[in-house]
Amino acid sequence: MNRGRTGPCSKPGTKACREKKRREMLNDKFMDLSSFLEPTRTPKTDKPAILDDAIRVVNQLRGEAHELKETNQKLLEEIKTLKAEKNELREEKLVLKADKEKMEQQLKSMAAVPSPGFMPSHPAAFHQNKMAVYASYGYYPNMPMMPYLLPPSQRDTSQDQQNCSFAA
User: Fold this and answer.
1) pTM here?
2) Where does this protein have coiled-coil stretches (predicted)?
3) In the CATH hierarchy, which top-level class contains the domain 15-111?
4) What does the alpha-carbon distance between residue 23 and residue 25 come to, in Å, rounded to a whole number?
5) Residues 53, 34: contact at Cβ < 8 Å?
6) Position 131 pLDDT exceeds 60
């Protein structure tokens, strides 16, 4: 039964003609979708296969989007932690800087006023060449203050047992 169709539609505007245009438009959209899903392959014409590919790609993209959201959340938390640590370090730096300045001021004040603990108070404690002379502060009589400064050949260790009583 031929209804006398000679062209795309025998009577434009009829329901059959509109339906044919709709099907052609859907087929074109399926071809576009197929070429978009797998651009390196020739487009598929099987509509269920095209829909399966589309579902697979959409699910894959959803998974990737979920992973990226999780990664983004972790990075935001890490940024928060690093900012808190940075602020703590800034505060510590300010405290250390204040301590340093305080110590420098103390050092300047100690250098400006000689204290009796650093210099002998009696002028007779100086030699003619203006160097201070200190008495031996050793714990053992007849021993120089720092015998380890003498070369080994000049050290006398014969009296050590008598001069030093070691507790064992």
Assistant:
1) 0.46
2) 51-106
3) few secondary structures
4) 5
5) yes
6) no
